[in-house]
Amino acid sequence: IGGNTPESNAVVENKTFTKINEAVLFKLKKDLYLGGQFTADIRYKVGTEEPGPNAYTEYAYGTTEPYSVYGGGLAFVYDSRDNPNSAYEGAYINTNYQYFGGDYKFTVLSLDARKFIELPDKRNVLGLWFLATFTTGDVPYDSLPANGTDPMLASARGYVSRRYTGEDLIDAEIEYRRNIWKWFGAVVFANVHSVTETNGKFVYYTPGGGGGIRLKLSKEA
């Protein structure tokens, strides 16, 4: 737990589970949606491939015994993007709150905010992304906020999923996209993220960055 964990703490999880996470939203007016969200997480097997106590099993909740948790709450979405899959302009905000019961009782509050700005050259787009998750209660390890565990599995690019885990997480990213020729393009990005330490404070801020090639499979994208 925390943003300064050594790589020597790494273990391989051994788990079997069923997880369902669904939202039902109703349109209030243009670009605005409100509804409910439900999560069921049933863990049939938990633990690690390595025998004996380790950095994973030292965490008190959801690391040694099978368990089930069920959550429900509210979800609010604002979406003005011109194209959800490859936006040139607009914004997306998804915030939801869930209370969980079952073998563990805890709450999760999350915010996913994105902004897309079309630059003067129409082949250029600047994307901004902010992600935050806050929890309270006895949160099982696999329900704790961690890099790379958002719905798109894309936060804190450059780090293996769950490299850093904590009770709360914040992540900010900026991305520049450019079309080069027809459906062929390129992208560069930079990000920084942080998770809370065992004392509940953000102390370490971890940067990342990179680039890549974009290949559009749709002419309309």
What would you say this structure looks like, in words?
This protein is mostly beta strands and 221 residues long. Helix content is 0%, strand content 53%. It has no helices and nine strands. Strands 1-2-3-4-5-6-7-8-9 form a nine-stranded antiparallel sheet, with no helix packed on it. Strand 4 and strand 5 form a beta hairpin. The model has no long low-confidence stretch (mean pLDDT 93).
Which properties best describe this structure?
221 residues; mainly beta; nine-stranded antiparallel beta sheet; 9 strands; 0% helix; 53% strand
Give a quick precis of the structure.
The protein is an all-beta fold.
**Beta strand %:** over 45%
**Coarse shape:** globular
**Helix and strand succession?**
EEEEEEEEE
Largest sheet: 9 strands, antiparallel
Helical content class: under 10%
Task: Name the assembly state.
Answer: single chain
**Low-pLDDT residue spans:** none
First-residue to last-residue Cα separation = 40 Å
Question: Which whole number gives the mean pLDDT?
Answer: 93
**Side-by-side strand order of the widest sheet:** 1-2-3-4-5-6-7-8-9
